[in-house]
């Protein structure tokens, strides 16, 4: 679930260096415990977004391989980055969005993968592997992707919504829930101004900040964990949230309508990466390989219907999910989709603008 890159990696380099040193010292054979007969360790420490992996799937891995999975979650990228940067080999596996991969790799925050331990990478569609952010998938394996999509309940919102620009209408006061994600939200505002969603021009970002401040009265809540709840409960009637959250809300309220905004959507993909100093690297790779099994990947998609890059799993996913435009925008729409990109030091401009927006609440 992507998500915001709110900390400079460079600021964490000292901590990362210590982490790598500590990790190297702790991964000797004398300190690793192995599982029964499979060459894997007895435990695995996984750090993931909340509501992103079913407990039943974790249990199946534990039962199959005799590995205890210590599973913890984060609700923002800044939380994940802070804990991973602290190092010490606390986590063996975490999730990072595509535009994080190269910056993290360049600063030594993540380790190269041994793809020999992940043969199920063959199940991934060609369009999702060997991307510019990680040629050859040296550091990352695609997990799930998403757009931040737009939806509303026409039972309670009588004004038709066709664009992001409509969100500023005064009759929508306190009617909107949005993901708590600076890149997606400021990107959306930039697009309403006719700029790219990855724009780094300081003047354009200032313009976007001022426009976003005008939207604040219409926003009931920022929620990246479970924004569907507010839609289902009727506390809000408009959502700018992960596409899967819209789809899950539609299971409870089928009348909720997905909008393909005239400005075009933005997209990102989450990927599994191994933090520097991970103590159970081979076991982490076995876990990723397990999740790429078609039946397992399809089971994940049933509970959390994000964009699934697994071509074999898609054969097992129900047609209603695959046809839901909140999850899988139609082909013509995908031609207009803009992927979030690494913007380097310009992230500081986003940080500043977002901080000023949030402080106005």
Task: Walk me through the structure.
Keywords: Periplasm, Signal, Transport. This protein is α/β, with parallel strands linked by helices and 361 residues long. It has 2 domains: 9-145 and 269-328, Periplasmic binding protein-like II (D-Maltodextrin-Binding Protein, domain 2); 146-267 and 334-358, D-Maltodextrin-Binding Protein, domain 2 (3-Layer(aba) Sandwich), CATH 3.40.190.10. It is 35% helix and 16% strand. The chain is built from 14 helices and 11 strands. The strands form 2 sheets. Strands 3, 4, 5, 6, 7, 8, 9, 10 and 11 form a 9-stranded mixed beta sheet that branches. A two-stranded parallel ribbon has the order 1-2. β1, α2 and β2 form a beta-alpha-beta unit. α6 (202-215) runs parallel beside α14. The longest helix is centred in the N-terminal third of the chain and has 14 residues, at 13-26.
Topology, element by element:
Elements (H helix, E strand, L loop, with lengths): L12 H14 L16 E7 L5 H11 L2 E7 L2 H10 L7 E4 L3 H6 L3 E2 L29 E12 L23 E3 L3 H11 L9 H14 L3 E4 L5 H6 L4 E5 H10 L4 E3 L6 E10 L5 H11 L2 H10 L7 H4 L4 H4 L8 H4 L3 E2 L7 H12 L3
Parallel strand pairs: 1-2, 6-7, 6-8, 10-11
Antiparallel strand pairs: 3-10, 4-10, 5-8, 5-9, 5-10
Main location: periplasm
Keywords: Periplasm, Signal, Transport
Protein name: Spermidine/putrescine ABC transporter substrate-binding protein
